[in-house]
Each structure stands twice: as C-alpha cells, then as structure tokens.
Amino acid sequence: MRIIQSIWTSNTANLLQNNMGWLSPEYNLMSWALSCLQLRQYYPEVVLYCDSVGAKMLIDKLQLPYSEVVCNLDVLNNYNPELWALSKIKAYSLQDKPFLHIDGDVYVWKKFDDFLLKSGLIAQNKDQISDFENTMQLLELAFAYFPREIIQERQSKNPIQTYNAGIYGGSDISFFQEYTTKAFTFVDKNIHDLSKIRVSDFNLFFEQYLFYCLAKVQNKKVTVLFSGIVKDNEYKGFGEFDKVPFEKQYLHLLSDYKKSEYMCDELANRLRQDYPEYYYRIIALFKKNKIPLYKNYYFFDMYLQKDLVLSDSKLKSCFLNNSFREHHKISKKIDFKNVSFDTLINENSKSLLDEIQLEDFAFFCQKIDEIVGNKFSLLSADYLYGRDLNKTKYSQILFEDKENIYLKKIVVDNVFEIIESSYDWSYYFEKNSDVSLNINSLPSNVIAVIHSLIIPECDAVGFSVSTLDDLDLVVLEILQNAKTVATLLEELKPYFDEVDLKESKTEFEMLIFKKIKKAIHNKSIRVLV
User: Fold this and answer.
1) Strand 483-484 and strand 409-412: pairing?
2) What is the pLDDT of residue 302?
C-alpha cells in the first residue's frame, strides 16, 4: 500500500513563525516529525506531496525520512490560504493505484489491518456534529453553487454526516478522480463569495461532506478504522499518549486538540522520548534563529543539536541512577519571573472578583513567589530536566503489563509544595512563556479549603499548579515511602465503605489508577525501575 501525506503552506514566509493551527509553531513541526517517523516504522513507501516551503522545512532542515518527495503543490498558491484541505484533494487526485493518505497530525504504532487496506474506499470514521448544520446554512446563504450530490442529500433533510479524513484512501481510483474533480469545482465556482464566510469552515464540506454524499449516491461502501458514528463531544481518546502503544496504536490530534497545552506537551514528550535527534533538531532551529519557543527550558541554551542529544541522554541516566544532588548550585541560573498579584491580574479582571477573593488570590500569588524564589530556585535544573525526561515512560512502565502492575513500586517525588487557599486558583495558571493570567471563569463563591500542588519546573516560569482533592492527598501521604501498587490499594481501602469495595472492586481500582496517572502527569510521584 502506498502511504501518502501532503503539506501546503500557502507560500508562508516562515514555518518557524506560523503555527498552522497549533498552539505554537514548534508543535506543528514536531507533529510532522512524529507522524512521518512512526509511519516509516511500518511502511517502506511513505510519499510526501508538498510545496517548496514545506519541502525546505520538512526535508532540507528536519531531514524527515520520506521515501519520495513530490514538490508540486505550489500550483495551489493562488488559492486562499485558509483552504488548507485543497492540498489533500490535490494529492488524492494524483494517485493511480491504491493509496492511503494520512494527515500530519495522525500517529500510528502498528500497521493498518489488511482488510482495511484492501477496501475500495477508506476513512477514519463517520461523524455527525450539530455545528455542521449551522455552518452549512451559512454556506447556503453565501454560495450560488453546490454539487448535485450535496443538493440531493440536503433535500432528504437528513442530519449532516461526514467521513473524518484523518485517513482517506482505497483502491477505487475512479471514485477519487470524480470526487476530486467535483471538490475543485465546488471551490472554484464559489471562489468570489469566500469573503461572505469564515473560509476555514468550508474545508470540511468540500472534502469530507462531499466525500460522504458522493459515496452515498453511488452506493459505495466506505470501510472505516473506527465503527459507529461520532457525535458532539465524542472525539475522546484520540490524544492519549500515555496509553501508547499498549492500549492505543492510533492517535489523531484533530481540531482543538492542537490548541491544548496538555496535548502539545504530550506530543513533544513522545517525540523527545522516541526520536530525540529530531526533537532537538527542531529546538535547535528555533534557538539558532532566535525565535521564542512556547516552553523554553534552560537546557535549550546549547544550540547545537548534537550537544542537546548528548546532554539529554546523560541527564536521563543521571536521574535514574540518582547521581544528582537535588540541591546544589545550578550551572546556569534560570531567570524566574516574579509571581506577583499586580503583574498577573489587570484592572478589568480585578473587577470580576470580590474583596475576599482578591485577598485570597493575592495570598496565593505571594506563597508561590516565596516558594519559587526561596526553594525552587535552589533546585538543580539538571535534576528537574532529568525528571521530565524519565516521566514520559512512567505510564507505559506501570500500565503496560496488566498482570504485574500490582508488583510495580511507586514513591512520592518530594520536590513540590502544597498551598492551602479558600478558592481554586489553579486554572488561572496555564504554563506559558509570559505567566499571564488566564481568566476563563470565576471561582466558586463558596469558601472551602483548596489544596494546590506547586511543582518546580525548569522552564522560564519555574512552576506549575495542580489542584488536589482529599484522595490525592491521601495517596501522596501513603507514598512517602516506596510502595507496590498492591500495597497502596490495600492501604487505601480503610478510606472507603467496605460494602462498596466488595461490590465495586474494579471501579475502586480504576479510580486509584486514575489518581496514579494524575500524579505521574503532575510529577508528584515516580515509578521505580
């Protein structure tokens, strides 16, 4: 099977400064790297269709190992840059034998099954999202032309369904020739009305909805990777890097996943773990060109890729062997920013909080500033980075072997502090380069005792925040000394109703495993290996 990917940058000036829909530009490049590298683990033929800017970045600079590069997508440069799906349509149209197109935000950890690859038409899954109808109505108000197949489907008054194009392909080449011709016609005949719509919304309709309608009219079977129909808020589990490869072998960071700091962190961590030379090649590019990274570790001040890779390996081993001293003078001082009330909250935001909340928030900021300045600043930055390098593997080490998980040992990593406050302020602190306040909603008006975990970080911010509930606190207390998972479960049982435990043993274990995963993510525990 011929595996293909496509990238069209619409002649963007610099991919180091264009996020291409991601949280930050580096994550776009990291996604392309991980997607390509994983595909090459299983397929000898992985072809990239690209424009000249894409080729210069992915091939010349990142040196991604595509088996073939077809640089022919500059022909699209006269189109609106928001019509990003056109590169995929163009790539589909150029195929003359069975193929599978895989998006650059899809990552695989096994080969696709033969029954899928032998199908005439292939897609990721079918979906039915309520917002599709609202967008379609706006297109109908703005556009004069729609393909006959879409008009016919709209007349049936059916809810809008599409086939998600995380993967598209198959052996029915004649279908793809007709489909892609119709897709370009759909775009070209409405090109002068694009100013009437949000252009990016059009992509789903000339790619995925048209595919669905044409296949339906022609009574073509579409074989999907995932059965069932995905509806509102049901695209879940497509970014669970902590379950790779033992539970999940296919991930797709579609839509808002790309804007999630958590997901982008997980993507970056996976690339760093499995392909450090490519991860640090990307980092070195940004540093060499003096372009800020979303998350800037002290460690990145060595600009040469080979030095970064060597130091990565050394720090990982030092952490595992406990050959650091946690408290020592760090070789390079991290310039931590002050966490002060006045710099974090503006006048408009202050007006949303009452006097008691403002006082509590000021206290919260003061405590973080004291912790970062008086304690975290004394920690070894090398130790913290070594911790981060090893954390990525903890979930796999712990949960991969379901039979022996109970024998694995875990222990608290005691380089954190806990702050008590009357309100939950943790969601205000999204880790980012300028430590700006993120006010999405007001805290509850109910005064309570809130425990926040303050974790030292070796980036420019110096800390991250995670809220703890009562069970989290108990788990951390029990794990002050190393315990097997089985022992942890036993020591937690007195905190639960005996009858409930007998009736819900599986649910109890799942709850505790969820707490362990949370503690791994917020770096409050270690898995002993």
Assistant:
1) antiparallel
2) 65
Comparing C-alpha atoms, which of 119, 64, 83 is closest to residue 8?
Answer: 83
Residue among 483, 499, 528 nearest 512 (CA): 483
Is residue 127 classed as helix, strand or coil in its secondary structure?
Answer: strand
Helix residue ranges per DSSP H, 43-144: 52-55, 86-93, 114-117, 131-142
Rounded to whole angstroms, the Cα distance separating 55 from 45 reads 17
Q: Could you report the per-residue pLDDT of 266-291, keeping only the tens digit for each?
A: 999 999 999 999 999 999 999 999 99
**What secondary structure letter does DSSP report for 428?**
G
Q: CA 161, CA 205: separation in Å to the nearest integer?
A: 10
Alpha helix ranges (H) inside 75-191: 86-93, 114-117, 131-142, 148-155, 173-188
CA distances from 479 to 409, 484, 489, 526 (A): 10, 9, 11, 10
Paired tokens of 388: 């981060």
Cα–Cα dist 334/311, whole Å? 17
Report CA dihedral (58, 60, 61, 66) to the nearest 10 degrees: 40
435: tokens are 């430590």
- Using CB atoms within 10 Å of the CB of residue 394, give its burial: 0 to 12 exposed, 13 to 18 middle, 19+ buried: buried
As a whole number of angstroms, the distance between CA 210 and CA 180 comes to: 9
Q: In this structure, which amino acid lies at residue 134?
A: N
Sign of CA dihedral 119, 227, 108, 50: positive
- Asked if residue 392 lies in contact with residue 267, where contact means CB atoms within 8 angstroms, the answer is no
Letter string b/e over residues 286-306, b meaning 16 or more CB atoms within 10 A of that residue's CB: bbeeeeebbbbbbbbebbebe
pLDDT tens track for 93-134? 999 999 999 999 999 999 999 999 999 999 999 999 999 999
* 327 beta partners: 379
* Contact call for residues 320 and 394 (beta carbons, < 8 A): no
Cross-strand pairs, 320: none
Instruction: Write out residues in the chain with pLDDT < 70, as ranges.
Output: 298-300, 302-303, 325-338, 340-348, 430-445
Report how far residue 253's alpha carbon sits from residue 41's, in angstroms, rounded to the nearest whole number.
Answer: 20
Sheet containing 450-456, strands listed edge to edge, beginning at the edge strand earlier in sequence: 417-421, 450-456, 463-468
The span from the CA of 312 to the CA of 269, in Å, is 12
Query: Could you give the dihedral angle defined by the CA atoms of residues 107, 466, 256 and 29, in that order, rounded to the nearest 10 degrees?
Result: -50
What DSSP designation does 424 have?
A: -
Contact status, residue 434 vs residue 460, Cβ threshold 8 Å: no
DSSP state letter for 182: H
Pairing of strands 121-127, 222-224: parallel
Sheet order of strands, 483-484 included: 483-484, 409-412, 525-527
Pairing of strands 417-421, 450-456: antiparallel
Non-local (6+) Cβ contacts of 177 within 8 A are: 93
Alpha helices in 168-246 (DSSP H): 173-188, 203-204, 210-217
Residue spans of alpha helices (H) in 109-172: 114-117, 131-142, 148-155
Using an 8 Å Cβ cutoff, are 112 and 144 in contact? no
